[in-house]
Specification:
Blueprint: E1 8-11, H1 17-28, E2 32-37, H2 40-51, E3 57-61, H3 67-80, E4 86-89, H4 104-132, E5 135-140, H5 153-173, E6 178-185, H6 191-195, H7 209-220, E7 230-233
Parallel strand pairs: 1-2, 1-4, 2-3, 4-5, 5-6, 6-7
Helix pairs in contact: 1-2, 1-7, 3-4, 4-5
Length: 238
């Protein structure tokens, strides 16, 4: 298995939910972790938890959907924290409503954050991985990106796009020993899912953020000759 101890990871949307669980799981494996988000209080609290594992940790506040902010923040993080080995594009937003009813501004915001945000951060970090001729990129999509449903047009469209982007990127950078994986979880008891009332968060029946984090760690620890192209994570309880 791949030894990931001592590597440097960037987790977008790392202040809470799936991102926080992933950041803590990485730290438990000895990975130095930088997290991003827009709520400084969440980020500060999570960084303090990460540091309890004896690794380096830092945060940056920026909007992944703003190209100028992304480029500036990645440059600052790289200079002050280190060159990254692992990128986990987790930041995302969701809202639901009928096509004829949802505000076009909100529809566009979901696309801007979920797909353009993934693209912007990837484009900013990718040169570092190319220079090393090695690395891992994990893009968080959703089962909503596999099948549409009523009232999910914006969110599903954004996640379909993430899957397509990831597949294309994977085929571009395999030759550079860079593994690109797309993960498509079903409903997880994240802060966002509970706020949107998509789940009651019952740990006996609903996937937890820690379950998702375990999948990420297992993926990263695969031997370098192996690459998980994509995977869906579902609860055993329908």
């Amino acid at each position: 298995m791949e030894n990931i101890t001592g590597k440097y990871a960037l987790v977008t949307g790392g202040g809470r939910g799936l991102g926080k669980a992933t950041a803590l799981a990485l730290a438990a494996e000895g990975v130095n972790v930088a997290i991003t988000g827009r709520n400084v209080d969440y980020l500060k609290a999570t960084v303090e938890q990460i540091k309890t594992f004896g690794v380096k940790a830092t945060y940056a506040v920026f909007d992944v959907g703003n190209l100028e902010e992304v480029n500036q923040a990645i440059e600052t993080l790289t200079n002050s924290f280190g060159v990254f080995d692992i990128l986990i594009n987790n930041a995302g937003i969701a809202a639901f409503g009928a096509v004829n009813e949802m505000d076009p501004v909100l529809w566009a915001q979901i696309i801007q954050t979920n797909i353009l945000g993934t693209y912007y951060v990837t484009k900013a970090v990718l040169p570092q991985l190319l220079n090393k001729n090695q690395g891992d990129i994990i893009n968080v999509a959703s089962t909503a990106g596999l099948n549409g449903a009523a009232n999910t047009s914006a969110y599903s469209a954004s996640k379909f796009a993430v899957i397509g982007f990831s597949d294309s990127l994977m085929r571009e950078v395999r030759k550079n020993n860079i593994r690109v994986c797309t993960l498509m979880p079903s409903t997880i008891a994240s802060d966002m899912s509970k706020e949107l009332q998509l789940t009651d968060g019952n740990p006996d029946t609903v996937l937890q953020p820690e379950d998702f984090a375990e999948l990420i760690i297992a993926n990263l620890k695969l031997p370098r000759r192996a690459m998980l192209k994509s995977a869906s994570l579902w609860s055993t309880n329908p």
